[in-house]
Amino acid sequence: MTDSNCLFCKIISGGIPSYKVYEDEQTYVFLDIGPVSKGHYLVVPKNHAVDLQSGTADDACYCLRTVHKTASVVMDALGATGYNLGLNHGVDAGQEVFHTHFHIMPRYAGELRGFTKLSPADHELAEVQQLIEAKMKEAGLWN
Ligand code: AMP
Ligand code: ZN
């Protein structure tokens, strides 16, 4: 189930490039290009649904399974000591991309900051992606 007009469906199919973090049969994971913290990433179901409530409960569970699988590896890769997990459901909650996605925002000791977006350069995002890819490979989680 894909929507040819959907940005995240295009990312999942490789039509638009992304900084890949992880992938399995049901989910695709990539860095947010407008992160609020270093390593901020998105977990999306491969099945298109405009939001969590429109998708299946199974897809919601697959996404949380992926959060559980990936978050420790990402924290380890980047030296993060915690993370925030978020989901914006609907325009009034600030949803901008209408394909279900969970935000995972790594946090760092002594750097408590809010949800203001950073503006990393491409090479900074690429460096973060490489650190994560290396740890995913060590953990046997890279496909
Ligand atoms: P939301 O407001 O929950 O819909 O979040 C959408 C998120 O997608 C924002 O944090 C954007 O920075 C992020 N985003 C938009 N376009 C891309 C893209 N091409 N690659 C990665 N993240 C993106
Ligand atoms: Zn989609």
Walk me through what this model shows.
Helices cover about 30% and strands about 15% of the residues. It is built from 3 helices and 5 strands. A hairpin with a 3-residue loop joins strand 1 and strand 2. The radius of gyration is 14 Å and the shape is globular. It binds adenosine monophosphate and zinc ion. Adenosine monophosphate binds next to loops.
Helix content: 25-40%
Structural class: alpha+beta
Number of strands: 5
Order of helices and strands: HEEEHEEH
The profile of the biggest β sheet is: 5 strands, antiparallel
Q: Which residue ranges are poorly predicted, with pLDDT under 50 across at least 5 consecutive positions?
A: none
Strand content: 15-25%
What's the end-to-end separation, in Å?
A: 21 Å
Order of strands side by side in the largest beta sheet?
A: 1-2-3-5-4
What radius of gyration results from the CA coordinates?
Answer: 14 Å
What is the count of helical runs? Answer: 3
Mean pLDDT: 97
Hetero groups in this structure are: adenosine monophosphate, zinc ion
Q: What's the shape?
A: globular
Topology of this protein?
Blueprint: H1 7-13, E1 20-23, E2 27-31, E3 41-45, H2 57-78, E4 82-86, E5 102-107, H3 122-138
Antiparallel strand pairs: 1-2, 2-3, 3-5, 4-5
Helix pairs in contact: 2-3
Residues 7, 18, 30, 32-34, 88, 94-97 line the site of adenosine monophosphate.
